[in-house]
Amino acid sequence: MHQTKRPGADSSVSIIGAGIAGAWQALLFAQAGHDVTLHERSDASLMLSTSHWAGGMLAPYCEGEVAEPIISRLGLRALDLWRRELPDTPFNGSLVVAHPRDRNDFERFARLTDGHQRLDAAGIAALEPSLEGRFREALFFPGEGHVEPRRVLPQLHQRIIAAGGTVTFDSDVDADRIDGIVIDCRGLAARDHEPSLRGVKGEMILIETSEVRLSRPVRLIHPRWPLYVIPREDNLFMLGATSIETEDSGVSVRSALELLGASYAVHPAFAEARILEFGSGLRPAFPDNLPRITVRERRLAVNGLYRHGFLIAPALAELTLGYVERGQIDNEVMRCA
Ligand SMILES: Cc1cc2nc3c(=O)[nH]c(=O)nc-3n(C[C@H](O)[C@H](O)[C@H](O)COP(=O)(O)OP(=O)(O)OC[C@H]3O[C@@H](n4cnc5c(N)ncnc54)[C@H](O)[C@@H]3O)c2cc1C
Questions:
Q1: What digits encode the pLDDT tens for the residues 198-226?
Q2: Is the predicted pLDDT of residue 3 greater than 70, yes or no?
Q3: Where residue 5 falls among pLDDT bands split at 50, 70, 90?
Q4: Which of 37, 113, 123, 141 could covalently link to 119 via disulfide, CB atoms 3.0 to 4.6 Å apart?
Q5: Mean pLDDT of the region 94-119
Q6: Smallest Cα–Cα separation from 181: which of 5, 3, 1, 8?
Q7: In testing the pocket of ligand 1, which one of 27, 49, 258, 316 has its CB within 8 Å of the most ligand atoms?
Q8: How far is CA 166 from CA 31, 98, 198, 284, in A?
Q9: Which residues are near ligand 1 (CB < 6 Å)?
């Protein structure tokens, strides 16, 4: 990190896009005393936002299996910010399980990740009684958390307003026509300025059953269908998520079969669950799948959050605030255009 000339800390700050990236930017800037307006083109349901469809896992350790170390660095810092700003965020950890035939993949996952404890069958049953007798061993990541995107986004928007900021929905704005500091958090819609962005489809299913109770996300290691089950309030569970290199936003029969089949492999009672929703979102990704803050004097762009938006958005907001207030540059994440 090094210091450079600050772009002007007293100006108004306009943030475009009220998904998870923009919401955290607006919150930290409003709390720091800036005159913040958060613009969102859709209504408060955020149906146009990738964030609406996300699992909301805050899993810097599990993601170490597939992600670069920068994701863990940002993610670990972000966990502190989630705890500070939303102290009710559940930090019950995550559980990773596998059936005996997938033991090699399970051991590989264990080698590629840290921050876990090994549990035997009794340990699993103690943590998640619904899984008693289902798996012989598991990895427990006690330091991880999860949020429910459709609840936490409105909470963040409320906190922005409480901190003196303004949140405007149905406000489709053009960054080039706004004065002051602009932070572009438009996700995939920012392709007009960032042509290398692409969408990576993630499909999810929402189901309801009172026959299974879980207190934390459960990931099933499987050679073909890496799946997770995330408990929501009111006996709901989100099954996720596929990762497909396409910008078609439909849910395929194949994906639905795989997600539902894998949930059944976690617990047969999921076979009797009611299906409430199929959905998909396009994860905004750069070619290297890493997040990027692009700095063009008073214009900043925060994008490429890929599969880690909920995990890393708070830490990215802290970095842009550090740049605007103190001229700090994080060489791993920031690019000066
Ligand atoms: C199925 C699935 C599961 C996932 N699970 C997880 C998970 O467990 N943990 C995790 O960390 N991440 C997860 N992700 C990834 C995460 O959802 C994304 O990284 C994140 O949502 C990207 O957020 P964003 O704010 O950059 O983009 P978005 O959420 O797309 O927000 C961009 C916003 O900008 C608005 N906008 C665009 N143009 C304009 C304009 N001109 N004016 C005003 N507003 C505009 C859009 O309407 C949108 O609301 C998942 C993704 C999917 C699809």
A1: 999 999 999 999 999 999 999 999 887 78
A2: no
A3: very low
A4: 123
A5: 95
A6: 8
A7: 49
A8: 12, 46, 30, 25
A9: 16-22, 39-42, 46, 48-51, 53-57, 171-173, 185-187, 189, 202, 204, 240-241, 281, 283-284, 305-311
